[in-house]
DNA sequence: GAAACGTGGTT
DNA sequence: TAACCAAGTTT
């Protein structure tokens, strides 16, 4: 049995029943799930994905609504620029691909918000192509099982893609199965903090395990602060704007944060990023038409 | 390559 | 409780 075959066998017996894994899921459904799952846990994505797909079953449906609606629908998934990019994706797909999610990897990668991981994930899971699909789970699993290292680097490198490519079966369908299996093992068993090695299909051959599971020695990565950052202030501002039914006066936004300098920086940042638009002395979510709001 | 970018649950 | 962690992308 190869590593990939072991992984597939484990996946067949242990995979979670997630809605976007249903065989009738469209490429659009796969894309939406992949974008939502960028840095957001599965448990929070699941209900959001269902609601999103019900409202916008196709790229054309989303493209017909303003970005503000996408930002609202995004709710509290975090990184709301993803909602904006997904909307931009939908518009681009209508303009360039007849409203379809492209199957060509380069065309996928050209879409806003679609990077190395997401592009390959869609090409693989939605279209059955053979590509290395490398996310943080896969990097950790391969790092441990194959390379014997306790953890992987923070970002996917060309070397990571090449290493995973070597592990994939030549058959595209099996390769796709192996990729989702590697991810699932990383998510459920070979976890970052407390791996459940006793339940791991690679237990007997895992290089890290065979080496005594040495801990990470090097300098730990920088802790990600949140409290007091611009990100928090942006979040607070956006929270107000999401719930607003019309333009929000700047005086209202001034209430979310006392530090005027930081508040102004956060607001202008949101405007620069295209999430928010000024409207007179007020502000609205991008694409929100004040005329419509009055109705 | 580092830093920015949200949010909430777990340890 | 502070830090860690969660299917990354962009600049």
From TrEMBL:
It comes from the Bacteria. It catalyses: Hydrolyzes free adenine bases from 7,8-dihydro-8-oxoguanine:adenine mismatched double-stranded DNA, leaving an apurinic site. Residues 36-188 form the HhH-GPD domain. This is Adenine DNA glycosylase. The keyword Coiled coil does not apply. It comes from Paractinoplanes deccanensis. Pfam families: HHH, HhH-GPD. The lineage of its organism: Bacteria, Bacillati, Actinomycetota, Actinomycetes, Micromonosporales. Keywords: 4Fe-4S, DNA damage, DNA repair, Glycosidase, Hydrolase, Iron, Iron-sulfur, Metal-binding. PROSITE patterns: ENDONUCLEASE_III_1, ENDONUCLEASE_III_2. Its cofactor is [4Fe-4S] cluster. Its EC number is 3.2.2.31. It is an enzyme of class 3 (hydrolase). Belongs to the Nth/MutY family. The keyword DNA repair applies.
